[in-house]
């Protein structure tokens, strides 16, 4: 287990892990030290990464990348507290599945510019190959061996160039300059490439452990192997699943059928930038084997981040079968953009996963509510279903100092309980926003609706991972023999089964698809404009006469 050291800018320590497997569920703490400030940011894992898909910096001029002595300028620009937040910008959106031009030897293609100077964590560029554009029976032909080899070589070379650039930034300049050498060392995470080939993924992982030559060691600041300069590992699930899509996954003769293979292909090929594909169980099993191939040769004490997850079910499988330490929250942000308020918890409430008198499981509950639906027009409950559960700005808004309630009628009078106390006074703040109010905001195209929903969904996802950590950190009940199953892991597995039985997956067949249709209907009505709608009504009225 790693020990926290003040000499390193980023450390990761495991507080619990499955004793019998390298890929079992585990908890830990990621510590990012603020060099020169004597402060650090502690993050408990499994943790949630908040993904901002429309950043406030659409372009970055060269002048903004010039060295500057002022620290945390980006934190202040975004309104974030440097003592509590880490900022990491990537060149590519991990949820964007659109085709892009091929990468070159000395450059990488990107659809937009998302760079930043001296972030807390840097994700090294990865040359993720995409299936060939040539078509065979209506399907892409896959990725050639030559392309896979080039991807592995470029990934290693780009990481070496990044580590060399960091080493040069610490060296004293040959001639006096106004800007001194930097003392900032960001944590560098490397993307594990190799697409759908276990051999290619393992080859890339082993290349990080190969001894460097004397010249390379001198260039890279004394590193013996590239992995010494790496703080953690990243896996892009969207790119991995795209690599799995063209070719059906091998299975036994009894399991293989043309219909099943076609279903897997159609599911994976229907992905859009806003909605990643929902893999079938067979794809899940195969992709976990690919992740094992990438992570197997590497250190188990460094944090593992995964981007492109599809929802809480996907996260639970990755925590259980791979032992990931961080996942992004793109699915929660997307749900808020579609008008869906998430409502779920881990462990699943007993009432949801209970059995009926006939011994059959209750119908799976959706993970959220489609607030575009007219049934929420008069629903005065908060987004979380009951007060006090969620502390987001929608369920527990903070009153503005000096703010007074405007009472237009008796309806606006604060509600009082049996003791005569108002609900506002009882909660120490404003009353929560109701589902009916958010429903109204959505149908009137108010941006605040999506802001409130995204804030609520991120808080829900955060509580979900708090529950995961609480279950994993629960007492194991004594020493465990080597050949026995870890009781903590067994308990976690039982809770996952209860969760899967209680909640339907956040896929395109449930609340998300329903919300997408209603969202499109409202957007089309908005595009017509009021005059256009009135003109249509007049034409219909004239035709009826």
From TrEMBL:
Domain tRNA-guanine(15) transglycosylase-like: 433-471
Protein's name in the database: tRNA-guanine(15) transglycosylase-like domain-containing protein
Composition bias type Low complexity, residue spans: 250-273
Region (Disordered): 1-28, 129-148, 249-282
Domain of life: Eukaryota
Positions with biased composition (Polar residues): 1-12, 131-146
Gene Ontology process terms (BP): tRNA modification
Gene3D superfamilies membership: Queuine tRNA-ribosyltransferase-like (3.20.20.105)
């Amino acid at each position: 287990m790693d020990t926290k050291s003040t000499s390193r800018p980023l450390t990761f320590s495991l507080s619990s892990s499955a004793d019998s497997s390298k890929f079992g569920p585990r908890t830990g703490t990621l510590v990012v030290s603020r060099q020169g400030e004597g402060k650090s940011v502690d993050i408990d894992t499994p943790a949630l990464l908040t993904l901002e898909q429309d950043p406030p910096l659409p372009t970055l001029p060269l002048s903004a990348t010039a060295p500057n002595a002022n620290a945390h300028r980006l934190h202040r620009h975004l309104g974030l507290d440097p003592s509590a937040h880490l900022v990491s910008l990537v060149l590519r959106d991990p949820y964007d599945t659109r085709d892009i031009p091929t990468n070159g030897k000395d450059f990488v293609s990107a659809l937009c510019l998302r760079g930043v100077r001296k972030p807390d964590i840097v994700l090294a560029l990865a040359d993720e190959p995409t299936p060939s554009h040539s078509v065979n029976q209506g399907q892409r032909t896959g990725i050639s061996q030559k392309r896979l080899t080039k991807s592995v070589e470029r990934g290693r070379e780009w990481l070496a160039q990044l580590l060399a650039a960091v080493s040069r930034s610490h060296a004293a300049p040959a001639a006096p300059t106004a800007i001194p050498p930097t003392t900032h060392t960001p944590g560098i995470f490397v993307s594990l490439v190799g697409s759908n080939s276990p051999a290619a993924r393992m080859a890339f992982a082993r290349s990080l452990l190969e001894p460097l030559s004397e010249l390379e060691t001198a260039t890279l600041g004394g590193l013996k192997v590239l992995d010494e300069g790496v703080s953690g590992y990243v896996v892009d699930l969207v790119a991995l699943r795209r690599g799995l899509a063209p070719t059906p996954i091998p299975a036994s003769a009894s399991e293989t059928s043309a219909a099943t293979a076609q279903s897997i292909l159609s599911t994976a090929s229907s992905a859009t930038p806003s909605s990643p594909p929902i893999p079938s169980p067979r794809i899940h099993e195969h992709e976990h084997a690919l992740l094992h191939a990438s992570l197997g040769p590497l250190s188990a004490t460094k944090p593992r981040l995964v981007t492109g997850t599809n929802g809480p079910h996907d996260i639970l499988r990755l925590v259980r079968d791979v032992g990931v330490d961080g996942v992004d929250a793109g699915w929660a942000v997307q749900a808020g953009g579609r008008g869906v308020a998430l409502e779920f918890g881990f462990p699943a409430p007993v009432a949801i996963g209970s059995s009926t008198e006939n011994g059959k499981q209750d119908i799976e509950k959706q993970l959220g509510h489609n607030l575009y639906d007219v049934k929420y027009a008069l629903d005065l409950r908060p987004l979380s279903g009951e007060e006090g559960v969620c502390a987001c700005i929608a369920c527990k808004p903070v009153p503005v100092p000096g703010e007074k309630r405007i009472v237009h009628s008796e309806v606006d009078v604060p509600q009082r309980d049996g003791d005569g106390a108002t609900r506002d006074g009882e909660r120490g703040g404003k009353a929560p926003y109701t589902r009916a109010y958010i429903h109204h905001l959505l149908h009137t195209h108010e941006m605040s609706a999506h802001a409130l929903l995204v804030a609520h969904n991120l808080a829900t996802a955060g509580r979900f991972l708090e529950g995961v950590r609480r279950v994993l950190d629960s007492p194991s009940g004594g020493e465990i023999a080597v050949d026995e199953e870890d009781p903590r892991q067994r308990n976690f597995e039982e809770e996952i089964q209860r969760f899967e039985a209680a909640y339907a997956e956040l896929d395109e067949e449930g609340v998300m698809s329903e919300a997408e249709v209603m969202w499109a209907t409202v957007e089309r009505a908005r595009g017509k404009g009021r005059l256009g709608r009135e003109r249509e009504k007049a034409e219909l009225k004239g035709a009826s006469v």
